[in-house]
Design a protein that fits this description.
The chain has 1 helix and 7 strands. The protein has 130 residues and is an alpha+beta fold.
């Protein structure tokens, strides 16, 4: 009888340990960030390209859907964007040719590996579209 009680205690400890390890780490979320569900982003558009090694520069334009405006990352005034790239190159949204209302330009510098690829992604709020 005594050994079955020990087994139940160990089983309870194991189950409790699994429950604790499955609990999300609260410190992983940025403090004060609102939930993404508060976003008004309704769609996203992108542009992408590839570059060969040594290619000096490449750009592309992210299309802006009619009646939509660039969404802001929840809780900030920053445009909600992402740059996904492969290979050794430096990429950014071009400040000189991007106004976030009529033109959004992504640009990358020299490709230093065998091949580089990039995708510039922008989320849009189309909730006011007529």
């Amino acid at each position: 009888m005594h050994s079955s009680r020990i087994v139940r205690i160990i089983l309870a400890m194991v189950l409790f340990g699994i429950t604790l390890s499955a609990t999300p780490d609260a410190s992983a979320a940025e403090p004060g960030s609102p939930p993404l569900s508060e976003s008004s982003a309704t769609t996203e558009f992108n542009c992408s390209f590839g570059m060969a090694k040594g290619e000096v520069r490449q750009t592309c334009q992210v299309p802006i859907p009619a009646g939509c405006m660039v969404a802001h990352f929840p809780g900030t005034a920053k445009p909600w964007t992402n740059i996904s790239k492969g290979g050794n190159t430096q990429c950014k949204f071009d400040d000189k040719t991007t106004d976030w209302k009529t033109r959004i330009t992504g640009t990358c510098g020299k490709c230093r590996t065998g091949h580089c690829s990039v995708q510039f992604i922008v989320k849009f709020d189309c909730s006011q579209r007529k």
